[in-house]
User: What shape does this take?
Amino acid sequence: MRYYTAEDAVAQIHSGDYVYWPCVAAAPEHLIEALVHRGDRGELQGVRISHFYTEGYADYVLPQYKGVFQLDSFFVGGNVRKATQGGQADYIPCSLSECPRFISSGSLDCDVVMLTVSEPDERGRVSLGTSVDFMPEAIARARVVIAQVNRFMPFTYGDGVLTLNTDGTAIDLPGRKVPLCLVRHDQPLKEAGRAPLSETDIAIGRHAAALIPDGATLQIGIGNIPTAVLSQLGGHKDLGVHSEMFTDDVIPLVEKGVINGRLKKTDPGKLVAMFLKGNQPLYDFVDHNEAVLMKDVGYTNSPLIIAQNPRVVALNSAIEIDLSGQVCSDSIGSKIFSGSGGQLDFILGATYSQGGVPIIAMPSMTGKGKSKIVPTLTRGAGVVTPRTLTQWVVTENGAVNLYGKSLRERARLLISIADPSQQEELKKAFDNL
Assistant: This one.
């Protein structure tokens, strides 16, 4: 295999190019740093960047790079949130299932893809490992791909397996060879850590787990609430996973046989996701594990694919929900906090799945003591899940089903699971609407 230095590889990026890279642990930080250093030297202008949620290094959004780099992310992580809210970066509103189509339709250009990949195997294949994202479509359209080969990246199967030519200078695709620059740089993958569960988390987990039937196909999100839910499922049977992502928390359930995927209609027996977020035990678990199938986000998040599985449980959260059932999960007022992500994709999929259970689960109060169940959404807040699709809502105070309920019934039910200290005020506010 022919290897380049990071500096020589990123020299393939020109002013005005549109550059993509994958999310979380798969973001190629060594290459990103080399790209930013080109900006320091005044060699680039107007480079556009897009990615999902990332963590860690993100100097390309600092004020001194205005005019050099422009980030338009599909989901806003904590490392770029301040820049996005302050105008140095921007956000593309979307459901994540649409991202491959942005590129295939020509709505967004694609010039360069930067990746982290596993070691090449004996057949000359590398794997995108922990994050497939929308990379297959981006790679197919790119002028050049720059890949950081990292021995710490696990080899996972599915849409992220790439076949290289004999010297590693191209990716072999049907009908096309995509030029490739390989850069060798080994660095341990970022780990998510593990925050202790609060009493509120555990109570929410207990209420949500009670809604999950045996044989369910699970969508699992990020954070303590999904962890709390999974911790309550040890007595369940024949669960499956078709999700945007999953974490270390599935491993004990797989080892116990609780998660086996045998009743899934699509990819039976497989744990399906488009990215992973976790710690070294998760990376070890997925490495060369044929039970794990990493797929493009256009597949994992397609409501049409999701709905083919029975009893899909879509577990999502919210920043706030109003008394009619409108769910805001991407902004605090007009300030973008995160993004729509795959929430609507999976809510739709669960809605049309036979026996599906769409769930919005959240604490009843913010950390600052403000009710997350509100009479009306904060001015400027975005609606990610419309009230027409909101069904189960869970807080630490219980679970209620809004399906088929009138506005007045919805308000009564939601107030019943609000924090007791807020219920009287919510009743008065609803009467005055």
Observations:
- The longest helix spans residues 29-40.
